[in-house]
Amino acid sequence: MHAAVITAHGTPPVYRAHPEPVARGEHEMVVDVLAAGLHHLTRSKANGTHYSAGGVFPIVPGVDGVVRDPSGRLRYAVLDDTDLGTFAERTVIDVRRSVVLPDAVDPVRIAAAMNPGMSSWVALRRRIDFREGQRVLILGATGSAGRMAVQVAKRFGAAQVFAAGRDTTRLEALPALGADQVLTFDEIAAAADVDVVLDFVWGEPAAGAMLPLLTARADRSAPLTWVQIGSMAGASAPVPSAALRAARLQIVGSGIGSLSPRDFIAELPELAAAVAEGALDVRARAVPPAGIARAWDDHRSDERLVFVP
């Protein structure tokens, strides 16, 4: 078979011949890959910057995908701790980390949406006690995960959704997806009285937004839960000490480790159904094997790139 193979940090994958996968465990099966998303997680695990990266080469990247199992059924599968990901013609999945999909689904659409959609979906469902009627601020709302978070928060009953980002052109499109107000980071105080922040940015921008947001709150003793999900602006943030004393702020993280695999898997069927039925807007572009090296570092588009072997 063929696969996209990475041989060292900082190098793009090369599509080449690769040994056939072999299922060894009781719950493992060899499957045909139909579509696999080029997510930020996929890149960061491959280049060693994600905290769950293994650092052993060569590797085939890809953390999830839409696959066809030996019986012909379509599945969405999540992979973890493997050097044979989904950027291949075939791979090995643990059937317990997969869900069966309807035959009529668009594999590219599912592969594009599940990972970015899951980040906010699982955070609101499993990581915090989110309640219908609460107000949500999304930092980094112009990326794929942020756009999905706007829609997910509204789907779960958020009374108000504030969408913050730096790209004003992309911000303009978010009210159509459910954002009640769009903001640049300089305008963050307008969202002062939210109950939850979903932060896909972290780094200096997130830390710089904390005090303007907190000091503008009408009631600083009202709880504010800041959920750290992504780190597009940096892995570390210089959180001001005053932010932890001047308001009732709780900072938590949502991701691999802070939630069990069981928590993620339990939410997959409902999220997949929402994507399949068109309830969530998805922007996706299929990338053939010949284009994977060129697409690997392409961050310009707001479409989620999807590898299609």
List its salient traits.
alpha/beta; seven-stranded mixed β-sheet; six-stranded parallel β-sheet; 8 helices; globular
The residue fraction in helices comes out at 25-40%
- Enumerate the spans where pLDDT stays under 50 for 5 or more consecutive residues: none
Write the element-wise H/E pattern from the N-terminal end onward.
Answer: EEEHEEEEHEHEHEEHEHEHEHE
Query: How big a fraction of the residues is strand?
Result: 15-25%
Instruction: Give the helix tally.
Output: 8
How does the overall form come out from the CA principal axes?
globular
Rg, please?
A: 20 Å
Can you give a write-up of this model?
This protein has 309 residues and is an alpha/beta fold. It contains 8 helices and 15 strands. The protein has helices at 40-47, 107-127, 144-155, 168-171, 203-215, 241-245, 261-276, 292-295; strands at 2-5, 14-17, 28-37, 64-68, 74-78, 90-94, 98-100, 135-139, 160-164, 181-183, 196-199, 224-228, 249-253, 284-287, 304-307. Strands 3, 4, 5, 6, 7, 14 and 15 form a 7-stranded mixed beta sheet that branches. It has a 6-stranded parallel beta sheet with strand order 10-9-8-11-12-13. The longest helix has 21 residues, at 107-127. The termini are close together. 43% of the residues are buried. The mean pLDDT is 93.
SSE topology sketch:
Layout: E1 2-5, E2 14-17, E3 28-37, H1 40-47, E4 64-68, E5 74-78, E6 90-94, E7 98-100, H2 107-127, E8 135-139, H3 144-155, E9 160-164, H4 168-171, E10 181-183, E11 196-199, H5 203-215, E12 224-228, H6 241-245, E13 249-253, H7 261-276, E14 284-287, H8 292-295, E15 304-307
